[in-house]
Amino acid sequence: MSKFELDWAAPIIPGKSMLGLYLGMTYVDVLDILRSYEVVDDKNGSCFLIKIKNAPTLLVDQVNDGIILRDAFSKMSNSTTFDKLFVIGFRDGVLTHLMTSLIYGASLDYYNGVIWGEIGFGSRIADIGKFCEIEFDPGDELFYSVDKNFSGFSIGGSSSSLDEDPEQRVSYIRVYAS
Q1: ∠30-123-74 over CA atoms, to 5°?
Q2: Any domain includes 77
Q3: Enclosing domain of residue 170
Q4: DSSP state of 147
Q5: Residues 74 and 142 in one domain
């Protein structure tokens, strides 16, 4: 397999990519890529540490339907956090979604990638309107694009509509196959 460049600041491409990983990749390929960034050689464990560009050291935790990138210190017995900084989700062994969210009180830097070169954590959700029309789903408490040309992503903020909280900031980003 060719060397993919994973980057904690890689652009977010709705419906396609985040972190330098692309929807449609296989579980085996993603795991091989993550292993190529391993900082401690431990081929026997389901958890291992990686260091990728622009990121703190991350703990890779393999779970039934995905891979979670965690705060490397969250598995320590004296840690008060257990942070899922990035979730890589699969269905039938194929990458179907990538998700990251702010966890207040966490000890690490969050994902720094942005959509359209501008929208990322801390951006005003209302600013997405420069690029596409969004609507709030009160059941999911997330925003989705109304424009089919910009499908394949959801954004979360304060779990309320823009009418209720027009100044809310991005705290959740998910890219998925549409």
Answers
A1: 50
A2: yes
A3: 125-176
A4: S
A5: no
